[in-house]
Specification:
By secondary structure, the chain is an all-alpha fold. It contains 13 helices and no strands. It starts with 5 loop residues before the first helix and ends with a helix.
Length: 288
């Protein structure tokens, strides 16, 4: 008998991917006409409104207590940096290709795992990383819609996300609900303090306010679904399915923004996905 209810976990994980792709599409729509700070603020406040009651329900009123406050805040700041870089890049770049480049994060993890975690990645992991970089180079080829200075922001996003993930194992002795709470705290608190400097109620109508609410809701719901999925099945089983999110990003890019990757871009995206899947499968074998 399978000890892990993989079917329900996978359903929750894929629904989380759809929510996060919806978050990215909504962010791309909003950053065209609104302050980047406002859009990122809505994303983090929405996450906190969803995950805080969840953490309180699971752990009681002391859910926020941590023995590693500095590490939690650093990790939260890295997630904020990744979000700012990604949303800023979406103002200029197609959604699907931008989403694909962010999957450089697992490759940065391989390169940084030795100095930060003391691990020695095997030859296969280095080969998969090199293949992934090849896919990114194809996306960034001359004449590509992604060959834009904003692509540097995506590399910054991937690096910040990699550091965010590398810090996660250092918090394994903390409750997952406490860590989830702190993940959005720096973004929500810090940007709330800065919001008055860019707030202009005249630029918002009911339609825009609804989209900001959707942004926050999909952020919070997406993270809640991921945690729920990980409670049912180990991350090593679910991580390979992260790459299906590119499918949703491609669909949103075409339906909402009229942007469809060309043939070579599809090739580059496919190479990045295959490289990431190979890294995920190797990580799964390593942990079994």
């Amino acid at each position: 008998m399978n000890p892990h209810p993989f079917g329900p976990a996978l359903a929750l994980f894929m629904l989380a991917g759809f929510c996060l792709a919806s978050l990215d599409a909504t962010a791309k729509y909003l950053v065209r006409d609104h302050s980047l700070l406002l859009v990122v603020w809505a994303r983090y406040v929405g996450q906190m409104l969803v995950v805080t009651p969840f953490a309180w329900h699971r752990m009681g009123p002391n859910f926020w207590r941590t023995g590693k406050l500095g590490l939690q805040l650093l990790r939260s700041a890295l997630l904020l940096a990744a979000t700012v870089c990604f949303f800023a890049a979406l103002r200029f770049l197609p959604l699907a290709e931008a989403s694909a480049i962010t999957y450089l994060a697992p490759m940065f993890i391989v390169l940084l795992s030795r100095p930060m975690l003391g691990e020695r990645p095997g030859r296969a992991r280095y080969i998969a990383t090199a293949v992934g970089f090849l896919g990114v180079l194809i996306l960034l080829r001359p004449g590509s819609s992604v060959l834009h200075p904003a692509a540097i922001l995506l590399i910054g996003m991937a690096l910040s996300n990699a550091l965010f993930q590398l810090l996660t194992p250092k918090l394994m002795d903390e409750s997952a609900h406490t860590t989830l709470f702190y993940s959005g705290l720096v973004g929500a608190a810090g940007l709330s303090l800065a919001l008055p400097s860019v707030w202009d109620a005249s630029l918002l109508n009911l339609r825009e306010a609804i989209f900001l609410a959707i942004l926050g809701l999909t952020a919070g719901l997406g993270h809640w679904l991921i945690i729920s999925a990980y409670r049912l099945a180990p991350a090593s089983l679910l991580t390979p399915f992260t790459y299906l999110q590119i499918t949703w990003a491609t669909m949103y890019g075409f339906v909402v923004f009229g942007q469809l990757p060309d043939g070579w871009s599809f090739v580059g995206m496919a190479i990045i996905v295959c490289s990431g899947l190979l890294l995920a499968l190797q990580e799964r074998r390593r942990r079994l």
